[in-house]
Protein backbone atom coordinates (compact mmCIF):
# COMPACT_ATOMS: atom_id res chain seq x y z
CA UNK A 1 0.00 0.00 0.00
CA UNK A 2 0.92 3.68 -0.13
CA UNK A 3 2.47 5.63 2.73
CA UNK A 4 1.29 6.01 6.32
CA UNK A 5 -2.00 4.61 7.59
CA UNK A 6 -3.75 6.90 10.07
CA UNK A 7 -6.28 5.86 12.72
CA UNK A 8 -8.44 8.61 14.20
CA UNK A 9 -10.77 8.37 17.21
CA UNK A 10 -13.49 11.08 17.40
CA UNK A 11 -15.89 11.66 20.30
CA UNK A 12 -19.62 12.30 19.87
CA UNK A 13 -20.94 15.67 20.98
CA UNK A 14 -24.00 17.23 22.51
CA UNK A 15 -24.72 20.77 21.33
CA UNK A 16 -26.56 23.75 22.85
CA UNK A 17 -26.74 22.34 26.43
CA UNK A 18 -30.15 24.05 26.55
CA UNK A 19 -29.76 27.81 26.11
CA UNK A 20 -26.43 27.98 24.24
CA UNK A 21 -27.88 27.50 20.76
CA UNK A 22 -25.06 27.17 18.20
CA UNK A 23 -22.56 28.19 20.90
CA UNK A 24 -22.10 25.47 23.55
CA UNK A 25 -21.00 21.89 23.03
CA UNK A 26 -19.63 19.02 25.08
CA UNK A 27 -17.73 15.95 23.91
CA UNK A 28 -19.14 12.60 25.07
CA UNK A 29 -17.59 9.18 25.65
CA UNK A 30 -19.11 7.60 22.56
CA UNK A 31 -16.82 7.29 19.56
CA UNK A 32 -16.29 6.93 15.84
CA UNK A 33 -13.04 5.61 14.32
CA UNK A 34 -11.70 6.40 10.87
CA UNK A 35 -8.75 4.77 9.15
CA UNK A 36 -7.27 6.52 6.13
CA UNK A 37 -4.44 5.74 3.77
CA UNK A 38 -3.43 6.75 0.25
CA UNK A 39 -4.25 3.97 -2.22
CA UNK A 40 -4.01 3.11 -5.90
CA UNK A 41 -7.81 3.01 -6.12
CA UNK A 42 -10.40 4.55 -3.79
CA UNK A 43 -12.24 2.14 -1.51
CA UNK A 44 -14.60 3.23 1.24
CA UNK A 45 -16.04 0.92 3.89
CA UNK A 46 -18.52 2.16 6.49
CA UNK A 47 -19.79 -0.01 9.28
CA UNK A 48 -21.86 0.53 12.41
CA UNK A 49 -25.64 0.90 12.88
CA UNK A 50 -27.30 2.66 9.91
CA UNK A 51 -23.99 3.22 8.13
CA UNK A 52 -25.02 0.95 5.24
CA UNK A 53 -26.97 3.84 3.65
CA UNK A 54 -23.94 6.14 3.48
CA UNK A 55 -22.45 6.40 -0.03
CA UNK A 56 -19.14 4.63 -0.54
CA UNK A 57 -18.04 6.36 -3.75
CA UNK A 58 -16.24 9.67 -4.12
CA UNK A 59 -19.41 11.56 -3.07
CA UNK A 60 -18.75 10.22 0.46
CA UNK A 61 -18.47 13.04 3.03
CA UNK A 62 -15.20 11.72 4.52
CA UNK A 63 -13.61 11.49 1.07
CA UNK A 64 -14.77 14.99 0.06
CA UNK A 65 -13.64 16.59 3.33
CA UNK A 66 -10.23 14.90 3.03
CA UNK A 67 -9.81 16.36 -0.46
CA UNK A 68 -10.42 19.88 0.96
CA UNK A 69 -7.45 19.39 3.28
CA UNK A 70 -5.19 18.13 0.49
CA UNK A 71 -6.21 21.07 -1.70
CA UNK A 72 -5.39 23.58 1.03
CA UNK A 73 -2.12 21.79 1.81
CA UNK A 74 -1.20 21.85 -1.89
CA UNK A 75 -0.79 18.09 -2.21
CA UNK A 76 -2.62 15.60 -4.43
CA UNK A 77 -3.95 12.40 -2.86
CA UNK A 78 -6.79 11.52 -5.24
CA UNK A 79 -7.20 7.87 -4.25
CA UNK A 80 -7.85 6.88 -0.66
CA UNK A 81 -8.61 3.79 1.34
CA UNK A 82 -11.11 4.83 4.04
CA UNK A 83 -12.71 2.65 6.71
CA UNK A 84 -15.06 4.05 9.32
CA UNK A 85 -16.72 2.40 12.28
CA UNK A 86 -19.09 4.46 14.44
CA UNK A 87 -20.95 3.88 17.70
CA UNK A 88 -22.54 7.35 17.37
CA UNK A 89 -26.21 6.99 16.40
CA UNK A 90 -26.97 8.75 13.09
CA UNK A 91 -29.28 11.76 12.90
CA UNK A 92 -30.20 11.63 16.60
CA UNK A 93 -28.62 14.83 17.94
CA UNK A 94 -25.28 13.38 19.06
CA UNK A 95 -23.16 15.01 16.38
CA UNK A 96 -22.60 12.15 13.92
CA UNK A 97 -22.12 14.56 11.00
CA UNK A 98 -19.66 16.66 13.03
CA UNK A 99 -17.73 13.51 14.00
CA UNK A 100 -17.44 12.53 10.32
CA UNK A 101 -16.25 16.01 9.31
CA UNK A 102 -13.77 16.40 12.18
CA UNK A 103 -12.49 12.83 11.83
CA UNK A 104 -11.93 13.29 8.10
CA UNK A 105 -10.12 16.61 8.61
CA UNK A 106 -7.81 15.26 11.30
CA UNK A 107 -7.09 12.02 9.41
CA UNK A 108 -6.34 13.76 6.11
CA UNK A 109 -4.18 16.40 7.79
CA UNK A 110 -2.17 13.72 9.64
CA UNK A 111 -1.77 11.74 6.42
CA UNK A 112 0.12 14.62 4.78
CA UNK A 113 2.27 15.60 7.78
CA UNK A 114 -0.14 17.93 9.66
CA UNK A 115 0.39 21.17 7.69
CA UNK A 116 -2.88 22.68 9.00
CA UNK A 117 -3.24 23.84 12.61
CA UNK A 118 -6.09 22.64 14.81
CA UNK A 119 -7.50 26.17 14.66
CA UNK A 120 -7.57 25.99 10.87
CA UNK A 121 -9.31 22.59 11.04
CA UNK A 122 -11.87 24.15 13.41
CA UNK A 123 -12.55 26.97 10.94
CA UNK A 124 -13.07 24.53 8.05
CA UNK A 125 -15.21 22.19 10.16
CA UNK A 126 -17.42 25.06 11.36
CA UNK A 127 -18.04 26.27 7.84
CA UNK A 128 -18.90 22.75 6.63
CA UNK A 129 -21.21 21.99 9.56
CA UNK A 130 -22.76 25.48 9.59
CA UNK A 131 -22.31 25.97 13.35
CA UNK A 132 -19.29 25.57 15.65
CA UNK A 133 -20.79 23.81 18.70
CA UNK A 134 -20.56 20.10 17.73
CA UNK A 135 -17.34 20.31 15.73
CA UNK A 136 -15.59 22.33 18.47
CA UNK A 137 -16.47 19.75 21.11
CA UNK A 138 -15.45 16.79 18.92
CA UNK A 139 -12.18 18.42 17.93
CA UNK A 140 -11.05 19.91 21.26
CA UNK A 141 -12.88 17.70 23.79
CA UNK A 142 -14.42 18.84 27.09
CA UNK A 143 -16.94 21.67 27.07
CA UNK A 144 -16.41 24.18 24.28
CA UNK A 145 -17.87 27.69 24.18
CA UNK A 146 -17.70 29.19 20.72
CA UNK A 147 -18.90 32.06 18.58
CA UNK A 148 -18.94 32.16 14.77
CA UNK A 149 -19.66 35.18 12.60
CA UNK A 150 -19.76 33.27 9.32
CA UNK A 151 -16.07 34.01 8.77
CA UNK A 152 -14.19 33.16 11.94
CA UNK A 153 -14.99 30.94 14.90
CA UNK A 154 -13.40 31.61 18.30
CA UNK A 155 -13.59 29.22 21.20
CA UNK A 156 -12.68 28.63 24.83
CA UNK A 157 -12.51 25.12 26.28
CA UNK A 158 -13.79 24.39 29.79
CA UNK A 159 -12.70 21.33 31.74
CA UNK A 160 -15.84 19.36 32.72
CA UNK A 161 -16.44 19.02 36.48
CA UNK A 162 -15.11 15.65 37.70
CA UNK A 163 -18.47 14.46 39.04
CA UNK A 164 -20.49 15.48 35.96
CA UNK A 165 -22.08 12.54 34.15
CA UNK A 166 -24.80 12.39 31.55
CA UNK A 167 -27.67 10.07 30.76
CA UNK A 168 -29.00 10.28 27.23
CA UNK A 169 -32.30 8.88 25.97
CA UNK A 170 -31.99 8.14 22.26
CA UNK A 171 -35.39 7.65 20.59
CA UNK A 172 -35.63 5.04 17.85
CA UNK A 173 -36.66 7.63 15.22
CA UNK A 174 -34.33 9.96 13.33
CA UNK A 175 -34.71 13.74 13.11
CA UNK A 176 -32.39 15.59 10.77
CA UNK A 177 -30.78 18.78 12.02
CA UNK A 178 -31.98 20.45 8.84
CA UNK A 179 -35.61 19.63 9.60
CA UNK A 180 -35.27 20.69 13.25
CA UNK A 181 -33.69 24.01 12.20
CA UNK A 182 -36.61 24.67 9.87
CA UNK A 183 -38.94 24.54 12.89
CA UNK A 184 -37.29 27.66 14.34
CA UNK A 185 -38.75 31.16 14.00
CA UNK A 186 -36.93 33.84 12.01
CA UNK A 187 -37.24 36.42 14.81
CA UNK A 188 -37.46 36.37 18.60
CA UNK A 189 -38.94 38.78 21.07
CA UNK A 190 -36.61 40.77 23.32
CA UNK A 191 -37.67 39.11 26.59
CA UNK A 192 -36.90 35.62 25.23
CA UNK A 193 -33.52 36.83 23.94
CA UNK A 194 -32.72 38.36 27.34
CA UNK A 195 -33.85 35.14 29.06
CA UNK A 196 -31.43 33.08 26.95
CA UNK A 197 -28.46 35.44 27.29
CA UNK A 198 -28.87 35.21 31.08
CA UNK A 199 -29.22 31.42 31.19
CA UNK A 200 -26.45 30.69 28.74
CA UNK A 201 -24.04 33.04 30.54
CA UNK A 202 -25.00 31.56 33.90
CA UNK A 203 -24.51 28.03 32.56
CA UNK A 204 -21.01 28.81 31.27
CA UNK A 205 -20.10 30.43 34.60
CA UNK A 206 -21.62 27.55 36.60
CA UNK A 207 -19.80 24.91 34.52
CA UNK A 208 -16.52 26.83 34.87
CA UNK A 209 -16.91 27.30 38.61
CA UNK A 210 -18.21 23.78 39.29
CA UNK A 211 -21.56 25.14 40.55
CA UNK A 212 -23.57 22.03 39.73
CA UNK A 213 -26.41 23.37 41.91
CA UNK A 214 -27.13 26.09 39.30
CA UNK A 215 -27.31 23.81 36.30
CA UNK A 216 -31.03 23.06 36.48
CA UNK A 217 -32.07 26.70 36.26
CA UNK A 218 -29.21 27.64 33.91
CA UNK A 219 -30.15 24.97 31.33
CA UNK A 220 -33.53 26.53 30.57
CA UNK A 221 -34.10 27.78 27.06
CA UNK A 222 -36.66 29.81 25.13
CA UNK A 223 -34.81 30.09 21.86
CA UNK A 224 -35.10 26.68 20.18
CA UNK A 225 -36.48 23.95 22.45
CA UNK A 226 -40.08 25.22 22.61
CA UNK A 227 -40.26 25.27 18.80
CA UNK A 228 -38.75 21.82 18.44
CA UNK A 229 -40.88 20.22 21.17
CA UNK A 230 -43.77 19.31 18.79
CA UNK A 231 -41.29 17.18 16.79
CA UNK A 232 -40.33 15.14 19.86
CA UNK A 233 -43.28 13.76 21.85
CA UNK A 234 -42.38 13.46 25.54
CA UNK A 235 -39.62 16.07 25.39
CA UNK A 236 -41.48 18.82 27.27
CA UNK A 237 -42.45 16.44 30.08
CA UNK A 238 -38.85 15.28 30.48
CA UNK A 239 -37.41 18.81 30.48
CA UNK A 240 -40.00 19.94 33.03
CA UNK A 241 -39.74 17.00 35.44
CA UNK A 242 -36.22 15.49 35.08
CA UNK A 243 -34.94 17.42 38.10
CA UNK A 244 -37.68 15.84 40.27
CA UNK A 245 -36.15 12.46 39.32
CA UNK A 246 -32.59 13.29 40.30
CA UNK A 247 -31.21 15.13 37.23
CA UNK A 248 -29.07 18.26 37.63
CA UNK A 249 -30.59 19.54 34.40
CA UNK A 250 -32.01 18.41 31.08
CA UNK A 251 -31.97 19.59 27.48
CA UNK A 252 -32.61 18.55 23.94
CA UNK A 253 -29.26 17.19 22.68
CA UNK A 254 -28.38 19.24 19.61
CA UNK A 255 -31.36 19.35 17.29
CA UNK A 256 -32.76 16.15 18.87
CA UNK A 257 -34.50 13.82 19.11
CA UNK A 258 -32.09 12.64 21.86
CA UNK A 259 -32.63 14.16 25.30
CA UNK A 260 -29.60 14.64 27.54
CA UNK A 261 -29.74 14.85 31.32
CA UNK A 262 -26.84 16.00 33.47
CA UNK A 263 -26.35 13.96 36.62
CA UNK A 264 -24.09 14.17 39.66
CA UNK A 265 -21.92 11.02 39.52
CA UNK A 266 -22.56 10.32 43.21
CA UNK A 267 -26.35 10.47 42.85
CA UNK A 268 -28.21 7.44 44.21
CA UNK A 269 -31.20 8.16 41.94
CA UNK A 270 -29.71 7.08 38.62
CA UNK A 271 -32.07 4.10 38.14
CA UNK A 272 -35.09 6.28 38.92
CA UNK A 273 -34.05 8.88 36.32
CA UNK A 274 -33.40 6.21 33.69
CA UNK A 275 -36.84 4.69 34.29
CA UNK A 276 -38.49 8.13 34.11
CA UNK A 277 -36.92 8.84 30.70
CA UNK A 278 -37.89 5.43 29.32
CA UNK A 279 -41.43 5.59 30.74
CA UNK A 280 -42.04 9.10 29.41
CA UNK A 281 -41.07 8.14 25.88
CA UNK A 282 -42.95 4.83 26.18
CA UNK A 283 -46.11 6.71 27.16
CA UNK A 284 -45.84 8.44 23.77
CA UNK A 285 -45.34 5.10 22.01
CA UNK A 286 -41.63 5.78 21.46
CA UNK A 287 -38.90 3.29 22.18
CA UNK A 288 -35.79 4.96 23.55
CA UNK A 289 -32.38 3.57 24.41
CA UNK A 290 -30.78 5.06 27.50
CA UNK A 291 -26.98 5.34 27.65
CA UNK A 292 -24.79 6.63 30.50
CA UNK A 293 -22.00 8.76 29.05
CA UNK A 294 -19.12 10.66 30.60
CA UNK A 295 -18.03 14.07 29.34
CA UNK A 296 -15.02 13.24 27.14
CA UNK A 297 -12.03 15.34 28.13
CA UNK A 298 -9.98 14.36 25.09
CA UNK A 299 -10.81 15.71 21.67
CA UNK A 300 -10.03 13.90 18.44
CA UNK A 301 -6.90 11.77 18.68
CA UNK A 302 -4.89 10.15 15.91
CA UNK A 303 -2.00 7.77 15.60
CA UNK A 304 -0.11 6.14 12.80
CA UNK A 305 -0.62 2.42 12.35
CA UNK A 306 2.52 0.49 11.66
CA UNK A 307 2.87 -0.76 8.04
CA UNK A 308 3.16 -4.33 9.25
CA UNK A 309 -0.01 -4.19 11.38
CA UNK A 310 -2.62 -6.14 9.43
CA UNK A 311 -5.20 -6.14 12.26
CA UNK A 312 -8.64 -5.29 10.79
CA UNK A 313 -10.11 -1.97 12.03
CA UNK A 314 -12.87 -3.70 14.01
CA UNK A 315 -10.33 -5.80 15.96
CA UNK A 316 -8.19 -2.74 16.54
CA UNK A 317 -11.24 -0.93 17.97
CA UNK A 318 -12.02 -3.90 20.21
CA UNK A 319 -8.43 -3.81 21.47
CA UNK A 320 -8.68 -0.05 22.14
CA UNK A 321 -11.93 -0.49 24.06
CA UNK A 322 -10.32 -3.26 26.12
CA UNK A 323 -7.26 -1.09 26.79
CA UNK A 324 -9.38 1.83 28.13
N1 LIG B 1 -19.78 8.82 8.58
C1 LIG B 1 -20.55 9.55 7.82
N2 LIG B 1 -20.30 9.64 6.52
C2 LIG B 1 -21.08 10.36 5.72
N3 LIG B 1 -22.14 11.06 6.15
C3 LIG B 1 -22.42 11.02 7.44
C4 LIG B 1 -21.64 10.28 8.36
N4 LIG B 1 -22.16 10.43 9.57
C5 LIG B 1 -23.22 11.25 9.43
N5 LIG B 1 -23.39 11.61 8.16
C6 LIG B 1 -24.43 12.45 7.59
O1 LIG B 1 -24.94 13.31 8.59
C7 LIG B 1 -26.35 13.13 8.70
C8 LIG B 1 -26.77 13.34 10.12
O2 LIG B 1 -26.46 14.68 10.47
P1 LIG B 1 -27.43 15.52 11.36
O3 LIG B 1 -28.81 15.55 10.76
O4 LIG B 1 -26.75 16.82 11.58
O5 LIG B 1 -27.55 14.69 12.71
P2 LIG B 1 -26.45 14.35 13.81
O6 LIG B 1 -25.19 15.06 13.39
O7 LIG B 1 -27.03 14.90 15.06
O8 LIG B 1 -26.32 12.87 13.86
C9 LIG B 1 -26.59 11.71 8.23
O9 LIG B 1 -27.91 11.53 7.78
C10 LIG B 1 -25.59 11.59 7.11
O10 LIG B 1 -26.10 12.19 5.94
N1 LIG C 1 -26.83 24.03 17.27
C1 LIG C 1 -27.29 23.00 16.37
C2 LIG C 1 -26.79 21.67 16.86
C3 LIG C 1 -27.19 20.49 16.00
O1 LIG C 1 -26.65 19.32 16.60
P1 LIG C 1 -26.90 17.88 16.00
O2 LIG C 1 -26.12 16.93 16.86
O3 LIG C 1 -28.38 17.62 16.07
O4 LIG C 1 -26.41 17.90 14.58
C4 LIG C 1 -28.83 23.01 16.34
O5 LIG C 1 -29.40 23.04 17.42
O6 LIG C 1 -29.40 23.02 15.25
Automatic annotation (TrEMBL):
Origin: domain of life: Bacteria
Catalytic EC class: transferase
UniProt pathway annotation: Amino-acid biosynthesis; L-threonine biosynthesis; L-threonine from L-aspartate: step 4/5
Subcellular location: Cytoplasm
InterPro entries registered for this protein in UniProt: GHMP_kinase_C_dom, GHMP_kinase_C_sf, GHMP_kinase_N_dom, GHMP_knse_ATP-bd_CS, Homoserine_kinase, Ribosomal_Su5_D2-typ_SF, Ribsml_uS5_D2-typ_fold_subgr
SUPFAM superfamilies reported in the protein's UniProt record: GHMP Kinase, C-terminal domain, Ribosomal protein S5 domain 2-like
Gene Ontology cellular component terms for the protein in this record: cytoplasm
UniProt binding sites for ATP: 89-99
Enzyme Commission designation: 2.7.1.39
A single GO molecular function term of this UniProt record: ATP binding
The GHMP kinase N-terminal domain, residue ranges: 60-142
Keywords: Amino-acid biosynthesis, ATP-binding, Cytoplasm, Kinase, Nucleotide-binding, Threonine biosynthesis, Transferase
Location of the GHMP kinase C-terminal domain: 204-268
BP-aspect Gene Ontology terms: threonine biosynthetic process
Physiological role: Catalyzes the ATP-dependent phosphorylation of L-homoserine to L-homoserine phosphate.
Family: Belongs to the GHMP kinase family. Homoserine kinase subfamily.
Protein name, as recorded: Homoserine kinase
